[in-house]
Specification:
The protein is an all-alpha fold. It contains 3 helices and no strands. 45% of the residues lie in helices and 0% in strands.
């Protein structure tokens, strides 16, 4: 490599960060086909505020059967799953 450095003449300059300038730059970028680059939230189901709450994926007919039974009993699907888990545990005591 030769002794010249073509980047040596570049200098950092502070960018204008006023609201108007940022809006103008965003408009110019969008007009030229650039997309919004702000970070996106993670895809998928939002985390449950309830500790240990499950969101199982089941076959559609199984999900419909659980929903129907929960409605018939007047409980939520989560409560029905808890009842089923208790029955399972009581029948599989080691």
């Amino acid at each position: 490599m030769s002794g010249s450095n073509r980047l040596a003449g570049l200098k950092a300059r502070p960018k204008d960060t006023t609201v108007e300038e940022v809006r103008r730059v965003d408009e110019v970028g969008e007009a030229r086909g650039f997309l919004d680059r702000t970070p996106r939230k993670k895809p998928g189901r939002k985390p449950s505020p309830r500790t240990y709450q499950l969101h199982p994926k089941v076959f559609p007919e199984v999900g419909e059967a659980i929903a129907t039974e929960a409605e018939r009993l007047g409980v939520t699907q989560g409560q029905l799953v808890e009842k089923m888990w208790d029955l399972y545990k009581s029948s599989h005591i080691d």
